[in-house]
Amino acid sequence: MARRRRGRDVDGVVLLDKPLGCSSNAALQRVRRAFDARKAGHTGSLDPLATGLLPVCLGEATKASGYLLHANKRYRVTAEVGSETATGDREGGITRESQAATPEAAEFDAVLAGFLGPQQQIPPMYSALKKDGKRLYEHARAGREVERHPRAIEVYAIECVARTAERFTLDVSVSAGTYIRTLVEDIARAWGGCAHVGALRRLGVGRLGSEHAMITLDDIEARADDPRSLDHFLHPVSTVLEDWPRLTLDGDQATAVRQGRRVPGPADSPAGGSLVCLVGENGDLYGFGVVTEAGEVAPKRLFARPQR
């Protein structure tokens, strides 16, 4: 007997405002069920204690979701001063304490300025990175502290939006792979104090941010009895790729791309290795390709259905 196909072919991006206390995977599955989508994927986990932007890709959009994993991120974080915890946030037990309060504005701004730019960061033990075949958080829960190698990150912008002796709130823009919990600890240690994350909200992923309206799980699930009524909440697949260069294909080139053949790159072709969107003359998005060293464009990921 043929296996029944589950769900429907629905393509696009849901800009979810992930709620407090919900894991990213749980949020993803709830969105997928509400839309009755065959396929879904998210673009980088948020801790259960974090809220904010979690782009959920449905259908063909999942082919582009991996590129948002490596996109820059923007956060608003509130740190509680006076203690560090095992997890780096308010979930963990206290591991270190200090009476050193948040510095006055000028000194604090100078501390923050020291964290701008490229740097090395040691990942926290409570993270999903693997060591010796296990997640770091598995080692941590077993009471083991294992060696972690520093990783290159970059802080593009950091601004204090609120400050008292007991807590401070920052807006930060960082490269992918940056742990905000570790950043908060390191900032406090720079003035001789301690701090941990009390609240964290993701404001942006790549070019996706406050200019794009987010939707809550409550709003989605309130309409789940009629999955098609949710489709107007979908952003097109091109939303994920909106800052990529585009190559418009004529009819013959579109046929060649669908057959997996290379086509000439644009006159102002970006450097070899760059990714470009492959677009038909009618504006349909066929997928994306990679620029070769010879200046041609080789198809990399093609959509089963043309997108917008």
From TrEMBL:
GO terms for biological process: mRNA pseudouridine synthesis; tRNA pseudouridine synthesis. The gene is truB. Residues 32-180 form the Pseudouridine synthase II N-terminal domain. This is tRNA pseudouridine synthase B. Responsible for synthesis of pseudouridine from uracil-55 in the psi GC loop of transfer RNAs. It comes from the Bacteria. It catalyses: uridine(55) in tRNA = pseudouridine(55) in tRNA. Keywords: Isomerase, tRNA processing. Residues 245-303 form the tRNA pseudouridine synthase II TruB subfamily 1 C-terminal domain. The active site is at 47 (nucleophile). Residues 181-241 form the tRNA pseudouridylate synthase B C-terminal domain. One of its GO terms (molecular function) is tRNA pseudouridine(55) synthase activity. Its EC number is 5.4.99.25. InterPro entries: PsdUridine_synth_cat_dom_sf, PsdUridine_synth_N, PUA-like_sf, PUA_sf, tRNA_psdUridine_synth_TruB, tRNA_sdUridine_synth_fam1_C, TruB_C. It holds the Pfam family TruB_C_2. Belongs to the pseudouridine synthase TruB family. Type 1 subfamily. It comes from Salinisphaera orenii YIM 95161.
